Amino acid sequence: MPIPMDYQHASEDFERFLGEVVARTGLTTRNQAFTTAEGVLLAFRRRLPPRDALRFAGALPPVLRAIFVADWDMDAPRPAFGGRADWTRDVRALRQDHNFSPDGAVAEVAAALRACLGDSRLDAALAGMPAEAQDFWSVAA
Question: Which of 12, 31, 48, 135 has CA 20 to 30 A from 82's CA?
Protein backbone atom coordinates (compact mmCIF):
# COMPACT_ATOMS: atom_id res chain seq x y z
CA MET A 1 0.00 0.00 0.00
CA PRO A 2 1.37 3.44 -0.87
CA ILE A 3 1.90 6.09 1.77
CA PRO A 4 -1.31 8.13 2.10
CA MET A 5 -1.11 11.50 0.36
CA ASP A 6 -1.80 13.38 3.62
CA TYR A 7 1.46 12.02 4.98
CA GLN A 8 3.43 12.32 1.77
CA HIS A 9 2.67 16.03 1.55
CA ALA A 10 2.45 16.89 5.26
CA SER A 11 5.26 19.45 5.19
CA GLU A 12 3.99 21.19 2.07
CA ASP A 13 0.45 21.30 3.45
CA PHE A 14 1.71 22.75 6.73
CA GLU A 15 3.74 25.42 4.91
CA ARG A 16 0.66 26.31 2.85
CA PHE A 17 -1.35 26.64 6.07
CA LEU A 18 1.30 28.89 7.67
CA GLY A 19 1.29 31.01 4.52
CA GLU A 20 -2.48 31.40 4.84
CA VAL A 21 -2.08 32.44 8.48
CA VAL A 22 0.57 35.02 7.55
CA ALA A 23 -1.59 36.41 4.74
CA ARG A 24 -4.73 36.64 6.84
CA THR A 25 -3.21 37.99 10.06
CA GLY A 26 -0.67 40.40 8.63
CA LEU A 27 2.08 38.71 10.64
CA THR A 28 5.50 38.84 9.02
CA THR A 29 7.14 35.49 9.81
CA ARG A 30 6.38 31.80 9.83
CA ASN A 31 7.44 31.72 13.49
CA GLN A 32 4.83 34.32 14.40
CA ALA A 33 2.22 32.44 12.38
CA PHE A 34 3.17 29.17 14.08
CA THR A 35 2.78 30.63 17.57
CA THR A 36 -0.57 32.16 16.67
CA ALA A 37 -1.88 28.95 15.09
CA GLU A 38 -0.63 26.82 17.98
CA GLY A 39 -2.23 29.20 20.46
CA VAL A 40 -5.57 28.99 18.66
CA LEU A 41 -5.46 25.18 18.51
CA LEU A 42 -4.58 24.89 22.19
CA ALA A 43 -7.20 27.45 23.26
CA PHE A 44 -9.79 25.29 21.50
CA ARG A 45 -8.47 21.95 22.78
CA ARG A 46 -8.48 22.98 26.42
CA ARG A 47 -12.22 23.70 26.24
CA LEU A 48 -13.23 20.32 24.84
CA PRO A 49 -13.83 16.94 26.42
CA PRO A 50 -11.28 14.43 25.07
CA ARG A 51 -13.82 12.64 22.85
CA ASP A 52 -14.69 15.85 20.99
CA ALA A 53 -11.05 16.93 20.84
CA LEU A 54 -10.01 13.64 19.26
CA ARG A 55 -12.83 13.80 16.73
CA PHE A 56 -11.67 17.31 15.80
CA ALA A 57 -8.02 16.20 15.65
CA GLY A 58 -8.97 13.47 13.20
CA ALA A 59 -10.05 16.12 10.68
CA LEU A 60 -6.75 18.00 10.85
CA PRO A 61 -3.82 17.39 8.51
CA PRO A 62 -0.96 15.44 10.15
CA VAL A 63 1.24 18.32 11.34
CA LEU A 64 -1.66 20.32 12.77
CA ARG A 65 -3.01 17.14 14.38
CA ALA A 66 0.35 16.56 16.06
CA ILE A 67 0.44 20.15 17.35
CA PHE A 68 -3.14 19.84 18.60
CA VAL A 69 -2.49 16.73 20.71
CA ALA A 70 1.14 17.36 21.79
CA ASP A 71 1.76 17.55 25.54
CA TRP A 72 -1.94 17.22 26.29
CA ASP A 73 -2.91 16.84 29.94
CA MET A 74 -6.36 15.32 29.56
CA ASP A 75 -6.91 15.63 33.31
CA ALA A 76 -6.43 19.40 33.35
CA PRO A 77 -9.58 21.29 34.30
CA ARG A 78 -11.51 22.67 31.34
CA PRO A 79 -12.48 26.34 31.47
CA ALA A 80 -15.91 27.52 30.43
CA PHE A 81 -16.06 27.94 26.68
CA GLY A 82 -16.34 31.70 27.03
CA GLY A 83 -16.15 33.97 24.02
CA ARG A 84 -13.68 35.54 21.60
CA ALA A 85 -12.08 37.77 24.22
CA ASP A 86 -11.36 34.71 26.40
CA TRP A 87 -10.03 32.71 23.45
CA THR A 88 -7.81 35.56 22.30
CA ARG A 89 -6.42 35.98 25.81
CA ASP A 90 -5.52 32.26 25.82
CA VAL A 91 -3.92 32.51 22.38
CA ARG A 92 -1.76 35.42 23.54
CA ALA A 93 -0.76 33.61 26.74
CA LEU A 94 1.36 31.15 24.74
CA ARG A 95 5.00 32.32 24.70
CA GLN A 96 3.92 35.80 25.81
CA ASP A 97 7.28 37.43 25.19
CA HIS A 98 7.30 36.23 21.58
CA ASN A 99 3.62 36.29 20.72
CA PHE A 100 2.37 38.78 18.13
CA SER A 101 -1.13 37.36 17.70
CA PRO A 102 -3.55 40.03 16.47
CA ASP A 103 -6.97 40.74 17.98
CA GLY A 104 -8.69 38.69 15.28
CA ALA A 105 -6.32 35.70 15.57
CA VAL A 106 -9.02 33.09 16.20
CA ALA A 107 -11.18 34.11 13.23
CA GLU A 108 -8.13 34.53 10.98
CA VAL A 109 -6.71 31.11 11.85
CA ALA A 110 -10.20 29.69 11.37
CA ALA A 111 -10.30 31.22 7.88
CA ALA A 112 -6.84 29.81 7.11
CA LEU A 113 -7.85 26.36 8.31
CA ARG A 114 -11.08 26.48 6.31
CA ALA A 115 -9.11 27.54 3.22
CA CYS A 116 -6.80 24.55 3.61
CA LEU A 117 -9.29 21.90 4.76
CA GLY A 118 -12.50 23.04 3.19
CA ASP A 119 -15.63 24.03 5.06
CA SER A 120 -17.31 20.63 4.80
CA ARG A 121 -14.44 18.73 6.44
CA LEU A 122 -14.18 21.17 9.33
CA ASP A 123 -17.94 21.46 9.78
CA ALA A 124 -18.29 17.66 9.82
CA ALA A 125 -15.70 17.46 12.61
CA LEU A 126 -17.61 20.09 14.60
CA ALA A 127 -21.05 18.54 14.03
CA GLY A 128 -22.68 17.55 17.28
CA MET A 129 -20.35 19.71 19.38
CA PRO A 130 -21.72 22.59 21.43
CA ALA A 131 -22.61 25.77 19.56
CA GLU A 132 -19.63 27.49 21.21
CA ALA A 133 -17.25 25.03 19.55
CA GLN A 134 -18.79 25.80 16.18
CA ASP A 135 -18.63 29.54 16.92
CA PHE A 136 -14.93 29.21 17.74
CA TRP A 137 -14.21 28.16 14.14
CA SER A 138 -16.46 30.78 12.59
CA VAL A 139 -14.66 33.29 10.40
CA ALA A 140 -16.91 36.09 11.62
CA ALA A 141 -15.02 38.05 14.28
Answer: 31
